[in-house]
């Protein structure tokens, strides 16, 4: 078959297959053009998920009639004045979006510049361009795409439902709105919820306002400010607290010079930075902006411009990991306040009255309950006592035995200085597992095992970094019998374990001898520790990175040495644990990513009891 030159319309339709994958792709190109034109307001409307109509109106610089005629020609653009692809400072640059869209749909553009006395319009119908004509149009541009993929109906079969396509269009607009908080965006669709994002003031507060309006009001109290710079690269944005995690990485937004990207290098760096804080299968929420010289990044490596390539990828990865780790460490004990709100909501729902006048709690009273028949009703002969006098409270002594088994309270009121501490003053231990502390304006409930486990883990990490972990020689070596395969795992990891002060040796077939223990774990069960370490090493496998295996070993050791649930603590020990948490990075969650404490504000508790 002889080689022939393809028809120009067919060429445009082939190009459209790369540029316009779905309606959201076409919308992205139009909004980027509006931003490049300096628009301060962009209004978007779609119908049928963008298949029937996509309309974008902006108040940017606009185009003259001559530029409008060239705008729908292939590879015609105003964004490369000197033709240097290594210094791209705009979102668009290829000059192929509009002609590609016009080849598979009906494209109509209205535009007027500030200097022009009248506007102009042009129409491209399935690749057939009509001449430019005068039209009434304010400054800026209005672009309408109708009947998308009418020229390539086979593509319609691969699109999702109108609702799904509309959500994809909304996501595209929201991503661009994050990077340009000074621009007002409005979005309306017949199949999805619309939104109107007003322009925000410049600065950190304005950016946080824009992000909270898109990601939800919970983002603001859970956001940590990130700011760092290195060798011409600058990183800014907000990272979510580790305890405010998600089931998928869909809430991770990264921008390079204002361009939203989904780069594997950057996502991998985020995963590495949070690896020590999140439970398995969970992902952080964050919004990060990387700014650099355009010569340091290549944005012309992906058809949809969704990926970039850095000249020094290692530098960017190191900057990202270092900045995020420093930010997370600076947060110390801070945890998401939504945990407390969720706890209060759960209590409110369980205590809400249901049908029949009953409450949902077990053993709750019925509506016609008479308090005078209560066995704890004070004796009428004691009514002379006023308020909470001791004789009137004597009836509650019948409960004393049961309560003593479950809780121990501190009789003396704490000082105001201790209550001013972030985690307050310990007042009681409940079920010998949870510490109840009083703060200046609320209550803190601490899981003593999870909190102490994190503290020990951080101490072991610090000892590992110092390469001088103190250890304690055992008077009699502990012999641990186990499967031969597990013995092999321990023997292979012996050099790593020695870094933490755990000295092990082979003791014949199917046995390991523990000669020395880390000083921090001297009271731990050596046999149980070795078996758990073998299980951890077996789960990681040989392909796991050294850093990951080290962290898992440390986590296992910390779990063995931490204060167990069921251990009774003195009030001094409880307060010491709270003060250590306030000084330790990452103490808001345990080694498994679960929260170590829940804070309840006094106003919320009062509202729960109907006092507000």
UniProtKB/TrEMBL annotation:
Domain of life: Bacteria
Domain DNA mismatch repair protein S5 residue range list: 211-329
Keyword S-adenosyl-L-methionine: no
GO cellular component: mismatch repair complex
A Pfam family reported for this protein in Swiss-Prot or TrEMBL: HATPase_c_3
Coiled-coil portions: none
Classification via SUPFAM superfamilies: ATPase domain of HSP90 chaperone/DNA topoisomerase II/histidine kinase (SSF55874), DNA mismatch repair protein MutL (SSF118116), Ribosomal protein S5 domain 2-like (SSF54211)
Keywords: DNA damage, DNA repair
UniProt similarity note: Belongs to the DNA mismatch repair MutL/HexB family.
Function: This protein is involved in the repair of mismatches in DNA. It is required for dam-dependent methyl-directed DNA mismatch repair. May act as a 'molecular matchmaker', a protein that promotes the formation of a stable complex between two or more DNA-binding proteins in an ATP-dependent manner without itself being part of a final effector complex.
Name of the protein this chain belongs to: DNA mismatch repair protein MutL
Organism: Methylocella tundrae
Gene: mutL
């Amino acid at each position: 078959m002889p080689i022939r030159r393809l028809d120009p319309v067919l060429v445009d339709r082939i190009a459209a297959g790369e540029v316009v994958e779905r309606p959201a792709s076409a919308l992205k190109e139009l909004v980027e053009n509006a931003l490049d034109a300096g628009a301060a307001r962009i209004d978007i409307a779609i119908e049928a998920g963008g298949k029937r109509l996509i309309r974008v109106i902006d108040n940017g610089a606009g185009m003259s009639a001559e530029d409008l005629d060239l705008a729908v020609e292939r590879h015609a653009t105003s964004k490369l004045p000197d033709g240097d692809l290594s210094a791209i400072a705009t979102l668009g640059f290829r000059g192929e979006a509009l002609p590609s869209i016009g080849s598979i749909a009906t494209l109509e553009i209205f535009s007027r510049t500030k200097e022009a006395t009248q506007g102009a319009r042009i129409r491209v119908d399935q690749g057939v361009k009509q001449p430019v004509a005068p039209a009434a149009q304010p400054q800026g541009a209005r672009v309408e795409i109708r009947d998308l993929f009418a020229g390539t109906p086979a593509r319609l079969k691969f699109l999702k439902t109108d609702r799904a396509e509309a959500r994809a269009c909304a996501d595209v607009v929201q991503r661009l709105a994050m990077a340009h908080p000074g621009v007002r965006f409005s979005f309306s669709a017949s199949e999805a919820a619309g939104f109107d994002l007003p322009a925000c003031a410049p600065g950190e507060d304005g950016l946080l306002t824009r992000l909270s309006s898109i990601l939800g009001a919970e983002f603001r109290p859970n956001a940590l400010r990130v700011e760092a710079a290195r060798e011409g690269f600058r990183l800014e944005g907000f990272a979510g607290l580790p305890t405010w995690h998600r089931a998928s990485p869909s809430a991770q937004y990264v921008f390079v010079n204002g361009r939203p990207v989904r780069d594997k290098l950057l996502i991998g760096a985020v995963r590495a930075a949070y690896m020590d804080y999140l439970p398995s299968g969970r992902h952080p929420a964050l919004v990060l902006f990387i700014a650099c010289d355009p010569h340091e990044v290549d944005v012309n490596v992906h058809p949809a411009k969704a990926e970039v390539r850095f000249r020094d990828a290692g530098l960017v990865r190191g900057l990202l990991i270092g900045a995020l780790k420093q930010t997370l460490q600076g947060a110390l004990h801070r945890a998401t306040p939504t945990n407390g709100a969720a706890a209060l909501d759960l209590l409110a729902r369980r205590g809400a009255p249901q049908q029949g006048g009953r409450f949902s709690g077990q053993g709750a009273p019925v509506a016609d309950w008479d308090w005078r028949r209560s066995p704890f009703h004070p004796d009428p002969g004691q009514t002379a006592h006023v308020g909470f006098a001791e004789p009137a409270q004597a009836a509650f002594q019948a409960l004393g035995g049961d309560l003593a088994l479950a809780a121990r309270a501190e009789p003396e009121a704490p000082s105001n200085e201790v209550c001013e501490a972030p985690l307050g003053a310990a007042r009681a231990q409940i079920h010998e597992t949870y510490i109840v502390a009083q703060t200046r304006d609320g209550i803190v409930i601490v899981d003593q095992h999870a909190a102490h486990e994190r503290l020990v883990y951080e101490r072991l990490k610090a000892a590992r970094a110092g390469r001088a972990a103190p250890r304690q020689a055992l008077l009699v070596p502990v012999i641990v019998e186990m499967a031969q395969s597990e013995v092999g795992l321990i023997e292979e990891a012996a050099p790593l374990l020695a870094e933490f002060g755990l000295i092990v040796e082979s003791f014949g077939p199917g046995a390991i001898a523990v000669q020395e223990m880390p000083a921090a774990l001297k009271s731990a069960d050596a046999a149980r520790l070795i078996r758990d370490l073998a299980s951890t090493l077996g789960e990681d496998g040989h392909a796991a990175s050294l850093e990951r295996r080290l962290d898992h070993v440390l986590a296992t050791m910390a779990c063995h040495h931490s204060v167990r649930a069921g251990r009774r603590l003195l009030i001094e020990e409880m307060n010491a644990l709270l003060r250590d948490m306030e000084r330790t990075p990452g103490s808001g969650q345990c080694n498994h990513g679960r929260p170590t404490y829940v804070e309840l504000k006094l106003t919320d508790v009062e509202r729960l009891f109907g006092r507000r």
